[in-house]
Design a protein that fits this description.
The complex is a heterotrimer of chains A (399), B (421) and C (762). Chain A is mainly α and 399 residues long. Chain A is built from 18 helices and four strands. A two-stranded parallel ribbon of chain A has the order 2-3. In chain B, α1 crosses α8 and α6 packs across α7. The longest helix of chain B has 20 residues. The radius of gyration of chain B is 23 Å and the shape is globular. Chain C is 31% helix and 21% strand. Chains A and B meet through α2 and β4 of A and β16, β20 and β21 of B.
């Protein structure tokens, strides 16, 4: 007896999906054009055809535990070729958003980030925190050459703008919080996958680690991304942003390490950007901003391919692009010798960065985590073995 | 009872023919206008009808007989209606007749088989060549040759041409390439519009390999391939190498039910493919046919046929649309990709040949009726009930039987116009 | 009248070069004594036609023979008022399929000349039968189809009698809560348009409506049907019972076989159902109307839902049919039959019955559309409700695809492919189990109400409806699917009861739009039949034929073959057992002519004597000449064009065969076989249409009858001491001309193994 599905459609869930941007999901008539149009869908249990029927039937549990929605890289080949205009791409996107919110820990932050109405609050928190730091640091721009960090809170001995220890403590905490809750979210997600396995495929299981490594090998060079037909420009853009971000992270880490731990004086902040570390930083920053810039423009100019952009998309793009842009601007402004603008931009930059760290697991930013986990899991259950081309029929050799 | 009032029937396919003979046999004078040099339209190009698997020419012959013996029917072939003015009971129609450019006493292609000039054979959907002067097909009505003026003019002075023309004269076959088209007006009291359909242009289905893969053909071509009078004399061999076909794939909804092509369902393609599967099975008992579909649409009594075909263990049915067709550069086999929906597995298989079940596109969607106050739906089918009586596939995608019910009804509508409601 | 024949030999097309025209003319003039015989090229040319016209005017020629191209061409050109025209096919059948200037080819041409003249000599002048001139029509059934037929016919000026068994018009269309019309913009469900139609019918002066009435009986024939219309009542049950008994008896007889000797009593009774009819029509109040033709639009009834027992129908009150739901839906909110609780979840099963062996269970023309429609009955009254639709194949043909899309575009409508496995009652709700769904191999759903789409059974399955006073019984003959039409793709209105045309769901499950189309067509056919009948002409396929059968009754042996074998029930029976012809029921296939062992049945231009004489006139060389002779009887509808096409493609075959076209192969009379063989003809071939369930015979069973008769010929051959293999019967489709030379070749091969027919020269 095969496993029996007891279908109890969640009408509300279907309505939520439609509200979340999957307006056309009811148009699907299950021809499976999408599953084949998709270059990266696995051969066994391909997506998004099955996701479409699940969505129509409001099968919440299946969709929320469906790793395939993360295998999708939103290239929209499926939506372009759909004969009924049901836009499967949008459905998967909506489900991904719900994924993030459903697994977010603590959960209320999921809503905070996901609901437009709460934008003020969501934006308010990092702003307030950073302003607090500025206030503690003395609430004024120090005279003389631009010097971001001060080691003393005492106006007399103040040697920079922001009181560094405080900044360090708060941002480290924020980072830790972000990372911890992301890990918590992903854990709950992984466990759900393990327990429910909606695809119903249990292949020769690989270990978690090996499949994780395999996944990274394919994520870092964006090899899957490349396969999307409809828009390969996105591949380039995402590549830039992705590596730019890594670069920036590395830079920050090294600087922090040298400066804060080893107490080495950083290469003169006012000096030219010729030091390797600076080159890395600036290059990364430019790549980062460029990549995100392209994506932003495409979202604005080419919804056909980019798909409809929801608040969820914009929130993430705004935060991360903001962080990058303000960072770069601060640098430029400093080179140009402006004092006040530089500090102001620096403050804004800090706000964006803090937002990024705080909301990591709740915003679309989390996709880096979820996608990695989903790909790893799929590998661990042996998905995506490409089937060979087989002759449909070879007649018995007569006479 | 219809007095001397005349009914104009536009389109000499099976619907137009039926409307014409039915109207004439109830006493109307009928003028039947057909664009091509012969009557019969699309069904003349079919091998067999579903579900009876009987040859369309059988019914056509009876209808030609009815036309021949009925003095009240006038047939114009190679004729087009340029304009229609007036209202029911009182129309004026302008008709343009293109000459056949050859005069004969009913001849056959054999009579002119040594014509040195060849042209593409449109009747066989370009799968073979025919002579620049020929009888369109064996059972053509009228049984008269037609000449391709341009081709013959080009060949003037070509070696053999003079002798050929000479030989023709001896047989009482005389060319007249300078003949002029003539245009005239007709006063009619009713107009029946039955210009039918054309197969959807498979070249627009860019991913399905028509035109790029040698062994991808359309369902209308398959009819010719299986027909005793077709390019292969009814042998089902594949185009690339004339190899006997052992595995064939039928790709349903090739264009139909697709907002990018024909958003409506063409109604007949499923049954046509089921039928064509039997063509291959009868021709080659070893062979296997595989039909890929979204929904297999067999309605009413056609469901018996569906059931009969489905019970052939060498005819497979798989739910899942074929999305891409490519070609093995070496074997020229076709490679189909789709998803077998019930098993949730992707399909990637090779076949000797693939047949695209392309849909029916109403000619009225491309060439509107040259008259006032005709209403069309978003697909180009005629929806107006009053005035000009559209019938057959000008109204809906329909199977032949239903077309003929409608065409017979159109004859009554015409009769009503002539007696004056 | 005595004929003055003019023979016009066409020397065009190469005939002049291929044949010895002079000796051919001699055959006509000297041997056959034809007064005028001319040879010219292309008689169809205007100037040549003048010669013929002047012969008609000046020489008193009143019958012409054109010896040239096939009769399938130039029929128009050689049509002269009041002149009988005969054609001899020298082109397709002689010079195009046989070598030029060859002795055998010449003999062939000369034989055809003899046969052609003989045929014309046997022509008898008879006026057409034009005594049946009633033009009003009867429409049975007051639903959408019947009303449309009545309205459309009336609009053409025809008097219509409309009979509806229920107290009011409207039929099913009036019982539906909402409908889909199939009309642009195709995307919504609306109130039934039936009320407007009812109003229109009532407002039409030349439609006389009988509601609450049934057709008690129909006697007579096209142009003179006598219809007795009687108020509905218990009498119908008795009538139906009697009809069923009659049917049983008939079946019993058929099982035992055609042999008249061993007919069971029941069968004997079956012979004359009319006598069992009681009481006499005059004993009860009734209306008697005379009509020219009939449209049968009796519609359908839901199939017996017990067929759905395996899905809980009958066991659980909340399992209902789509028809029953219409009733529930009319009272606003949909409530469960079991406990009156408001329905929140409903499931539809589109194809509840997969039994393909039972023709009439199919509802597939509309099932999917109905399910989509009815899902919205619930959705519109209850926003929180859920409607599941399970289909095998979602069938929304043509523009209905847009209806599908519109109905589907509602979060509360859930669709999936699925084959029902079973239904169980989980206390508060039903649990439906399905397999092969889009959500997995097996799935279950809980619902308050389960709706099974109902098959549409034609009303004619339950009773004859038309209640014919025909010798062949009260029923319309059924086709292989159990419907009353003749199962032709090209001629959807053909039935085996001339002048009675079926339309709407009595013919095939169909939607409103198709019903209306079909009704309009049927109305035309009825009007047309009355018209042609009044003119003494046949209806299609031999439309316009003015000949009709006459029987020389004095020598009739009451063998009843003609009355039994006529596919159209044209013959009734006189008390003395001899046939009573009804000329206007006749389709002129001449099957009766073939059936009569006493050769009593003849048409003015087609008779046993005529064909027999044609056979006898064939010149049979002696047994040493090595020139065998074979007569090939061919169906003129399909086989004749096959022979033509063989010629057109210059396919060669034996010049020793002589083709004789028949109106239908069922027209073959055993006498001709005997005549031919006793005259020294070496072999006989019959080529007709395919028969069986998907017969291609235009007269339904002609070719099959021919086969049957030939199976009975053996004793004739034994009497003549000839090999049975000298006769062979073939089925050939019209497009199989390539096979003709092979068939003939093989037969000649077979003959060559026998001695020449010893009767040569007798």
């Amino acid at each position: 007896m095969p496993n029996v599905t007891v279908a109890e459609p969640d009408l509300q869930f279907t309505k939520d999906l439609i509200a979340a941007g999957a307006d056309d999901l009811k148009k699907c008539y299950q021809c499976a054009t999408c599953s084949v149009a998709c270059k990266i869908a696995p051969d066994n249990g391909p997506f998004p055809r099955k996701e479409m029927i699940w969505a129509q039937w409001g099968l919440k549990d299946r969709l929320l535990n469906d790793p395939d929605v993360w295998l999708c890289h939103q290239c929209n080949d499926c939506s372009t070729e759909c004969p009924r205009g049901a836009n499967p791409g949008e459905v998967l996107k909506a489900v991904r958003k719900m994924n993030i919110q459903a697994n977010s820990w603590p959960s209320f932050l999921g809503n905070l980030v996901g609901t437009p109405a709460m934008f003020i609050l969501a934006a308010g928190i990092p702003i307030a925190v950073v302003l607090f730091i500025v206030y503690v640091s003395g609430w004024s721009f120090p005279s003389g050459p631009v010097h971001y960090s001060s080691h003393s809170i005492n106006p007399a001995t103040r040697d920079g703008f922001i009181y560094l220890p405080l900044l360090q403590v708060i941002f480290t905490l924020a980072l830790l919080f972000g990372v911890v809750s992301l890990v918590m979210s992903l854990r709950s997600y992984w466990n759900q996958l393990e327990s429910s396995n909606p695809i119903g495929i249990k292949g020769p299981g690989k270990g978690f680690v090996s499949s994780l490594i395999e996944s990274l090998q394919e994520i870092l060079p964006h090899s899957t991304f490349k396969e999307c037909e409809a828009n390969n420009i996105r591949y380039a853009a995402h590549m830039l942003a992705f590596w730019g971000m890594i670069g920036l992270f590395v830079t920050t880490a090294i600087v922090a390490f040298n400066y804060d731990i080893l107490g080495l004086k950083p290469p003169s902040q006012n000096g030219p950007g010729t030091v390797p570390i600076k080159i890395l930083g600036n290059a990364s920053a430019i790549a980062f901003v460029l990549g995100l810039g392209i994506m932003t423009i495409r979202r604005l100019t080419n919804p056909e391919q980019a798909g409809n952009s929801s608040y969820f998309d914009w929130f993430f793009l705004f935060t991360i692009f903001g962080a990058g842009a303000t960072g770069l601007l601060t640098e430029l402004s400093r080179w140009s010798g402006f004092i006040a603008p530089t500090y102001t931009l620096y403050v804004i930059h800090l706000m964006f960065v803090l937002a990024l760290l705080l909301y990591l697991p709740f915003s679309k930013f989390a996709h880096l985590g979820y996608r990695t986990v989903a790909i790893a899991w799929s590998k661990s259950v042996g998905r995506s073995r490409p089937l060979p081309v087989v002759p449909n029929y070879v007649p018995p050799t007569s006479e | 009872m219809a007095g001397d009032k005349t009914v104009l029937v536009v389109g000499g396919g099976i619907s137009g023919i039926t409307a014409a003979v039915e109207a004439a046999e109830v006493g109307c004078k009928v003028i039947l206008v057909e664009k091509l040099p012969y009557l019969g339209g699309r069904v003349a190009q079919l091998n067999k009808y579903f579900p009876k698997l009987c040859p369309p020419t059988c019914g056509l012959e009876i209808n030609y007989k009815r036309i021949r013996r009925n003095p009240d029917i006038t047939v114009y072939t190679r004729a087009e209606v340029l304009n229609i003015s007036g209202t029911a009971g009182n129309y004026k129609a302008t008709v343009k007749v293109t000459p056949r450019y050859v005069e004969d006493h009913t001849a056959t292609s054999k009579c002119v088989e040594d014509c040195p000039v060849e042209i593409t054979n449109e009747f066989n959907y370009g799968m073979d060549k025919t002579k620049a002067v020929s009888l369109p097909y064996e059972m053509a009505y009228p049984m008269n040759l037609v000449a391709d003026r341009d081709a013959l003019l080009k060949a003037k002075g070509q070696p053999g041409m003079a002798e050929f023309v000479e030989a023709c004269n001896a047989k009482g076959i005389r060319f007249n390439l300078d003949a002029e088209p003539e245009t005239f007006d007709l006063d009619v009291s009713s107009v029946v519009w039955a210009t039918g359909w054309r197969p959807y242009d498979a070249k627009k289905l860019t991913k399905l390999g028509f035109g790029t893969c040698a062994n991808v053909i359309t369902n209308v071509m398959m009819e010719r391939l299986a027909a005793p009078s077709g390019p292969t004399k009814g042998q089902i061999l594949r185009p690339s190498d004339g190899k006997k076909i052992n595995s064939i794939a039928f790709v349903q909804c090739a264009g139909s039910r697709d907002r990018n092509h024909l958003p409506y369902c063409s109604s007949i393609c499923c049954l046509a493919s089921l039928k064509q599967a039997t063509y291959l099975r009868d021709y080659n008992p070893e062979a296997q046919a595989h039909i890929f579909y979204i929904d297999l649409r067999a309605y009413g009594r056609f469901e018996f046929f569906y059931d009969r075909v489905r019970n052939d263990d060498k005819i497979l049915l798989t739910k899942g649309k074929i999305v891409s067709i490519t070609e093995d550069p070496v074997t020229k086999d076709v490679i189909l990709e789709g998803e077998d929906i019930l098993s949730g597995q992707k399909i990637r298989r090779t076949f000797d040949m693939a047949v695209l079940a392309t849909g029916m596109q109403p000619n009225t969607s491309l060439e509107k009726i040259p008259a006032q106050n005709v209403k069309y739906d978003e697909f180009g089918f005629v929806i107006s009930d009053e005035g000009i009586h559209a019938t057959g596939v000008s109204k809906r995608p329909m199977d032949v039987g239903t077309c003929l019910q409608d065409a017979t009804g159109a004859a009554l509508r015409a009769l009503q116009d002539t007696v004056g409601r | 009248m005595d004929l003055k024949i003019g023979v016009y030999i066409d020397t065009g097309y190469g005939i002049g070069e291929a044949l010895d025209i002079e000796s051919l003319s001699k055959v006509a003039t000297k041997e056959m004594k034809v007064p005028i015989c001319r040879a010219e090229a292309y008689w169809s040319d205007p100037d040549k036609l003048e010669i013929i016209k002047s012969d008609i005017a000046n020489e008193g020629v009143n019958a012409i023979i054109i010896a040239g191209p096939s009769p399938r061409v130039f029929q128009e050109a050689f049509r002269f008022d009041g002149i009988i025209t005969e054609r001899i096919n020298l082109r397709e059948q002689v010079i195009w399929s046989h070598p030029a200037n060859d002795e055998d080819t010449q003999m062939l041409a000369e034989d055809y000349m003899r046969m052609g003249v003989t045929k014309l000599n046997k022509y008898e002048d008879r006026a057409p039968f034009d005594e049946a001139s009633e033009k009003s029509i009867l429409v049975i059934g007051g639903g959408i189809t019947g009303m449309t037929a009545a309205l459309e016919a009336a609009r053409a000026g025809t008097q219509v009698y409309l009979v509806e068994k229920e107290p009011q018009l409207g039929g099913w269309a009036a019982k539906y809560h909402k409908v889909f019309t199939g009309r642009a913009p195709y995307d919504s469900i609306v109130d039934s348009p039936v009320q407007d139609k009812i109003a229109a019918v009532k407002a039409t002066s030349n439609i006389k409506v009988f509601t609450g009435h049934r057709v008690y009986s129909i006697a007579g024939s096209p142009g003179m049907f006598d219809v007795i219309i009687r108020e509905d009542g218990p009498w119908i049950d008795r009538l139906v019972r009697e009809q069923n008994e009659w049917l049983e008896a008939k079946k019993a007889k058929e099982q035992i076989g055609q042999e008249d000797e061993q007919k069971p009593k029941a069968a004997a009774a079956a012979e004359t159902p009319a006598e069992e009819e009681a009481p006499e029509p005059t004993d009860f109040p009734h209306e008697k109307v005379r009509v020219g033709a009939v449209v049968l639009a009796a519609g359908w009834r839901p199939e017996d839902a017990s067929a759905f027992a395996d899905l809980g129908y009958g066991e659980y009150p909340d399992v209902i049919t789509s028809v029953e739901l219409e009733e529930l839906a009319k009272n606003g909110k949909i409530k469960r039959p079991s406990d009156g609780k408001e329905v929140n979840t409903i499931a539809f099963i589109d194809t509840p019955n997969q039994k393909a062996d039972h023709p009439l269970l199919f509802s597939s023309s509309v099932a999917s559309l109905v399910a989509l429609k009815q899902a919205h009955y619930l959705r519109q009254t209850n926003p929180e409700s859920r409607a599941y639709i399970f289909y095998e194949n979602m069938r929304t043909p043509g523009q209905y695809e847009k209806f599908y899309q519109a109905m589907q575009d509602d979060p509360g409508v859930f669709l999936s492919k699925g084959t029902p496995v079973g239904v169980s009652n989980g206390g508060s709700a039903l649990t439906i189990e399905l397999k092969d769904t889009l959500l997995g191999e097996h799935m279950k759903v809980k619902v308050d109400l389960l709706v099974l789409s109902t098959g549409m059974v034609p009303a004619t399955k339950d009773s004859a409806i038309v209640n014919l006073k025909y010798r062949q019984g009260p029923f319309m003959p059924e086709n292989v699917y159990g419907f009353n039409d003749s199962h032709f793709i090209c001629f959807p209105y053909e039935t085996q009861r001339t002048g009675i045309y079926t339309a709407g769901c009595v013919k095939n499950p169909m939607d409103f739009l198709t019903c209306e189309m079909d009704a309009t067509g049927a109305a035309l056919k009825a009007i047309q039949c009355a018209e042609l009948t009044a003119q003494g002409r046949a209806v299609a396929p031999r439309a316009g034929d003015e000949s009709f059968p006459q029987i020389f009754l004095q020598r009739c042996t009451q063998c009843k073959r003609c009355t039994e074998e006529c596919p159209f029930g044209a013959y009734d029976e006189k008390p003395d057992g001899t046939p009573l012809p009804n000329p206007t029921r006749c389709r002129r296939c001449a099957i009766c002519m073939g059936s009569c062992p006493e050769r009593l049945i003849s048409f003015r231009d087609h008779s046993v004597d005529m064909i027999g004489s044609m056979v006898k006139i064939i010149d049979v060389p002696d047994e040493y000449s090595e020139k065998p002779r074979v007569v090939v009887f061919i169906c003129e509808n399909d086989a004749y064009p096959v022979v033509d096409m063989a010629g057109m493609n210059r396919l060669e075959y034996s010049p020793h065969v002589r083709f004789i076209p028949l109106r239908c192969l069922g027209n073959i009379n055993m006498v001709w076989i005997a005549d031919a063989l006793s005259k020294g003809i070496d072999g006989i071939m019959l080529i007709g249409c395919k028969y069986g369930d998907d017969y291609q015979c235009h007269f339904v069973k002609g070719s099959e009858l021919a086969e049957y008769r030939m199976s009975k010929i053996s004793e004739t051959l034994q009497r003549l001491a000839l090999e049975p293999d000298r006769i062979s019967v073939h089925q050939l489709a019209i497009d199989e001309f390539n096979k003709l030379p092979k068939i003939i070749g093989e037969f000649m091969e077979r003959l060559s193994e026998f001695e020449p027919n010893p009767y040569k020269g007798f």
